[in-house]
Design brief:
alpha+beta; four-stranded mixed β-sheet; HSP40/DNAj peptide-binding domain; Helix Hairpins; 8 helices; five-stranded mixed β-sheet; 3 domains
């Protein structure tokens, strides 16, 4: 992979905010949902996402800058930090430094023998292990099953529930370290990070988008297409719409817990002028201003 800084078009001294801004700009331009069937855009989007996966994480960025990992995120084997890729997604593993087989022997020797001379069996629950998993916004919205590869080469399927939140931890019981002396295994704790989407953003259980409309749609009203996480729908822009006005789509937001209810989608209207203001439009507006001029900033 190329230099991630070059892929995002930022300098090595760029701030975290600059990196995120560059990623959002490129992702919005290249996202497959906005470029259906365009393979080059899809490949470029994957490169941009991989670059942000590296530079968007302060710890990984620091390791890359120090030369401890390469542009793909691969690390030297002597480092205690592991990273494995599965299906294009990454998971970070934070394991215990203790060897539980060694600990079993230590505790057995420590606790010695009982009054009959028999060695007492020491049992202890295995330790928990923690993972950090990045997922796409749509995977968080609709749910997904992600397969991650563990440091020992085994795989772990993580069922991401519909509507999962940023920072939420998924507990996989019995998927942690093995127990000692026949004790139960620990759990795997998977912390979720949700990547930003170029169109959708989450506010509570609602999904919010900026919905562009033309000047004639604002004045005259009309039917316009609006994207949702499940596909496009037709909504009505009311006659006399203003930028900032909100259209609400009931039940088109994130799932609210196990009850099965969903939040709403809010479409915030944004009047967008044509790229070129032709003479006809300019003359019409000039005549209209002469007889219908008004001041929307009065009282500010």
């Amino acid at each position: 992979m190329e230099d991630p800084y070059k892929i995002l078009g930022v300098s090595k001294g760029a701030s975290d905010a600059d990196i995120k801004k560059a990623y959002r700009k490129l992702a919005k331009k290249l996202h497959p949902d906005l470029n259906p069937g365009e393979k080059k855009a899809e490949e470029r989007f994957k490169e941009v996402s991989a670059a942000f996966d590296l530079l968007g994480d302060a710890k990984k960025r620091a390791k890359f800058d120090r030369g401890e990992i390469d542009a793909s995120g691969a690390e030297r084997p002597e480092h205690r930090y592991y990273k494995e890729y599965a299906g294009g997604e990454s998971a970070r593993h934070y394991g215990s430094g203790a060897n539980f087989d060694d600990l079993g022997g230590i505790f057995s020797d420590l606790f010695g023998r009982d009054h009959d001379g028999e060695r007492r069996q020491f049992k202890m629950r295995g330790g928990d292990v923690r993972y950090h998993l990045r997922i796409d916004f749509l995977e968080a919205a609709k749910g997904a099953t992600k397969r991650v590869t563990l440091p020992d080469g085994s795989t772990l399927d993580v069922k991401v529930p519909e509507g999962v939140r940023e920072g939420q931890t998924i507990r996989l019981r019995g998927k942690g370290q093995s127990g000692i002396g026949g004790g139960p295994p620990g759990d795997a704790l998977v912390e979720i990070e949700v990547l930003p989407h170029p169109v959708f953003r989450r506010e509570g259980d609602d999904i919010v988008i900026d919905l562009p409309i033309t000047i004639d749609e604002a004045v005259l009203g009309g039917k316009v297409d609006a994207p949702t996480i499940h596909g496009r729908v037709r909504v009505t822009a009311p006659k006399g719409s203003s930028s900032g006005q909100t259209l609400r789509l009931k039940g088109k937001g994130m799932k609210r817990g196990a009850a099965g209810r969903h939040g709403d989608q809010r479409c915030v209207l944004k009047i967008v002028l044509p790229d070129t203001i032709d003479d006809e439009l300019e003359d019409m507006m000039a005549k209209w201003r002469e007889t219908h001029g008004y001041n929307p900033r009065e009282g500010l």
